[in-house]
Amino acid sequence: MAIIGKLLKNRRAGDHNLAWELENLRGGASFELTSPDFGHETTLDPRHASKRIGGQDLSPALAWSTPPEGTAQLLLVVEDPDAPMGLPFVHALALLDPALTALPRGGLTATNPAPGVELLRSGWGSGYTGPAPVKSHGPHRYAFQLFALTEPLTTVNGKSPAGAKPRDVMSAAVSHARARTDGFYERP
């Protein structure tokens, strides 16, 4: 597998394809998103990595400042813009109650999400899928992005948000504020 990583070294989805860059999610304001499990632009602990590579698929704890007034719902998107694909790989997608200001460690677990969390489809089913970058592909950035939506997302192209494709959900949402923190993970 290491040879595949080396062959794909220069192929990456790119930051410009993140949900963060979608016009409808840019919003005018910002608020703060942090994690007690990793600092912004530091390495994620192996327990947050995929079970496929020896991790636990344990979503990191997250905390955020109060979103601006008028927030009807929060949309959490976790993406890997360094995936050797056309678009970033979606590691988690969830709608959150706007009263929440934190998620506990493991709060995005598919079988037992935290209260106030509605898990949506991601790259592998629903719930958090930890990092599992191709060996020798180099460091991958994991963008934890939180969007304060002006209207609750109740349908996406005539479907419930839980049944819609991740990119369709991101395109249907309208944000008036956003927050972000990034972590890194690499397989040698």
Largest sheet: 7 strands, mixed
Beta strand count: 12
Please state the CA-atom Rg, rounded to the nearest Å.
Answer: 16 Å
What proportion of the residues is helical, as a percent range?
under 10%
Structural class: mainly beta
Element string (H = helix, E = strand):
HHEEEEEEEEEEEHE
Strand residue percentage: 25-35%
User: How many angstroms does the end-to-end distance come to?
Assistant: 11 Å
Mean pLDDT: 93
Can you tell me the residue ranges where pLDDT is under 50 for at least 5 consecutive residues? none
The global form is globular
Our count of helices gives 3
InterPro entries: PEBP, PEBP-like_sf, YbhB_YbcL/LppC-like
GO molecular function, one term: protein kinase inhibitor activity
Pfam families: PBP (PF01161)
Organism: Nocardia albiluteola
SSE layout and pairings?
Elements: H1 2-7, H2 23-26, E1 29-30, E2 33-34, E3 42-43, E4 62-64, E5 73-80, E6 89-96, E7 102-103, E8 117-119, E9 121-122, E10 125-126, E11 140-149, H3 166-172, E12 175-185
Give a written overview of the molecule.
- The protein has three helices and twelve strands; from the N terminus they run ααβββββββββββαβ.
- It has helices spanning 2-7, 23-26, 166-172; strands spanning 29-30, 33-34, 42-43, 62-64, 73-80, 89-96, 102-103, 117-119, 121-122, 125-126, 140-149, 175-185.
- The strands form three sheets. Strands 1, 3, 5, 6, 8, 11 and 12 form a seven-stranded mixed sheet that branches. Strands 2-4-7 form a three-stranded antiparallel sheet, with no helix packed on it.
- Strand 9 and strand 10 (125-126) form a beta hairpin.
- The longest helix has 7 residues, at 166-172.
